[in-house]
From TrEMBL:
This is BI1 inhibitor. GO terms for biological process: cellular response to unfolded protein; negative regulation of apoptotic signaling pathway; negative regulation of RNA splicing. The chain crosses the membrane at residues 30-47, 53-73, 85-103, 115-135. PANTHER family: BAX INHIBITOR 1, BAX INHIBITOR-RELATED. GO terms for cellular component: mitochondrial membrane. The gene is Tmbim6. InterPro entries: Bax_inhibitor_1-related. Keywords: Membrane, Transmembrane, Transmembrane helix. It comes from Chionis minor. The lineage of its organism: Eukaryota, Metazoa, Chordata, Craniata, Vertebrata.
Amino acid sequence: MNVFDRNINFDALFKFSHISASTQEHLKRVYASFALCMFVAAMGAYINVVTHLFQFSLLTGLGALGLIVWLTATPHSRETEQKRLGMLAGFAFLTGTNLGPLLEVCISINPSIIPTAFLGTATIFACFSLSALYARRRTFLYLGG
């Protein structure tokens, strides 16, 4: 399936009916993968700041680029689902490790910036995720946007 050959129904933007159960299940899976990526990227950033193992940001950047290209080239199916999730987690980890030098600068200015930013981002993400997962009507989703 070509990414650019999709039939997009723009009438769905103006439909305020109830969300189907299959759509809510899809939303749960999408937000679960987003949450996984956020925590894996935080773990990669933490490992980089504490251990200074990955100081070659060019290599981790190229690795992240390679993983995201491999992910987009892998067709979606039930058989490749776990493999694609692993590629996405690897991309998130390498992206988190690339934040190491930036986090070092933030730590030198004020160390409380990092946990404040992480907790603020996680809280906002959790609130938006819960509103998308538990809203029965589409109108509530548009309020959040």
